[in-house]
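Hey forum,

I'm writing up a methods section and want to include a predicted complex as supplementary material. The small molecule is flavin-adenine dinucleotide. I've pasted the protein sequence and the SMILES. Can someone with a working setup run it? I'll credit the forum in the acknowledgements.
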Amino acid sequence: MEFKLTKEQQLIQSAAREFAEKHIEPVLQQIEDEDDVPRELIDRMAELEFFGIQFPEEWGGSDGGYDGYVLVMEQIARVSPGVSMILSVNGLGLGAIYTYGTKEQKEKYMEPGLTGKLLASFAFTEPETGSDPRQITTTASKDGDSYVISGTKRFISSANFHGPIVVFARESESEEITAFIVDKFCEGYSISKPWDKIGLKGNRIVDVYLKDVRIPVENMLGKVGKGFNILLSGIAYGKIGISSTYLGITLRAYEEAVKYAIEKTHRGQSIAKFQAIQIRVGEIAIKLEAARWLTYRLGCLANDVKDPVQFAKEAALTKSFVCENAVDVTRIAVDVHGSYGVMEDYTIQRLYRDAIIGPQIEGVGDMQKMIVAGSVLRGGR
Ligand SMILES: Cc1cc2nc3c(=O)[nH]c(=O)nc-3n(C[C@H](O)[C@H](O)[C@H](O)COP(=O)(O)OP(=O)(O)OC[C@H]3O[C@@H](n4cnc5c(N)ncnc54)[C@H](O)[C@@H]3O)c2cc1C
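Reply by user p_vandermeer:
Happy to help. C-alpha cells for the complex are below, copy them as they are.
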C-alpha cells in the first residue's frame, strides 16, 4: 500500500493544473454565460491528449491509466467542472465502444474520439425514466440489414457535438434492451434547445429526438438483449469521471474556504481566529481527504478490473460518497463566507450550484446505495 504519487503522476497533475489555470480560467465566465465550451479549448485539451489518457496507445490513447485520468480530471474540474464533464462523457461513450465494440467499430470511433475530433455521448435517460431500464420506450425495429430507431432521449450530455452516441433501445424481435451506435446529426437525428440547468455550465444537455433513424445492423453494440450489462458496466467506468469531477469541486471549495477564512477580518483580526470557523475548515479538510483517497483508489482499481460486479460496487460507493460529500463541503464553505457566500462575485456560490447536481446524475444516490447494499448482502465485500 502506497499513498503517494509517482514523479510521473506529479507531472501529469501539475501539467493539468497549469493548463486549467492558464487556458480555462480566462474563459470561465464565457463558459458560465454561454453554457458552452469554446472549440479552441477542446482542441487544446486534445493536443495535450487529455481525451485519451485512460485508453491504450493501440487505439489512440496515451496509456496514462485511470489513475492518471483522475489526476487530470480533478485539476480541470477545480477550475471548471463543466469542462471536465465533457472529457468524462466522451470517455463514457468511447469506453462502452472500447469494451463492447467490434474491431471495425473501434477503428471507426476510437481515434477520432480520443483526439477530440468527434465527441461521444451516451443516451439512456428518457422522459419517463432515468433509473429503470424496463421503462425504456425507444425502439429499434429490424428491417432487413438495418435497424430503424425511434424515440426521445432526455438530458443527454454533449449530444450537440458531432460524434457517436450510444443509444439504448428496445430491440423489436427480442423486446430486450440493446445498445446501438448512432452517428449524431445523421438523417432523423435532431436535438432540443439546451436545458437551462443551475450549474455544471459548459456541460450542455439537450433532449435527443430519433425519428426513424436508419443504421446498419453492424452498428449494434454488443449483443441483442445485453444493453443493461453495457449500461451498468459503462456507467461504472463513467463514475470515475463524475467522482473526479466532484473531487475537483471539493478541492476548490476547500481552497476558497481557507482563503476566505484567512483574508476576511473582523474587528481587525482574521475570522480564522473563531473556533466556529476553525471547526468548519477542519471538517472540510477531513472531507476533502476522504473524497480524494476514495477517488484515487477507484482510478487504481479501474486499471485492473478482474470482477466487473465488484468494480461496479466500488464505483457506486465512491460516486455516492464523493458527490454527496461535495454538497456538504460546498454548503459548509458557504457558511464560512457568510452572506458573501451567496453573492455571484464569489466562486463558492457557483461551486454550491455545481455540487448539488452530482447526486442526481449517472444514477441517483439511492440507486448507488442499492448497488452497494446488493453486493454486501450477497456476501460480497
Ligand atoms: C447535468 C446532467 C447530465 C446528464 N447527462 C446524461 C447523459 O449524458 N445521458 C443520460 O442518459 N442521462 C443523462 N442525464 C440524466 C440523469 O442521468 C438522470 O436524470 C438520472 O439518472 C435520474 O433519472 P430521473 O431524473 O429520471 O430520475 P428517476 O429515475 O425518476 O428517479 C427519481 C427519484 O426516484 C427514486 N427512484 C427511482 N427509481 C427508483 C428505484 N428503482 N429504487 C429506488 N428509488 C428509485 C430515486 O430516489 C430518485 O431520486 C443527465 C442529467 C443531468 C442533470
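Some notes you might quote in the supplement: The radius of gyration is 21 Å. The pocket of flavin-adenine dinucleotide is lined by residues 89, 121-125, 129-132, 155-157, 197, 200, 203, 205, 357, 360-364, 366 (CB under 6 Å).
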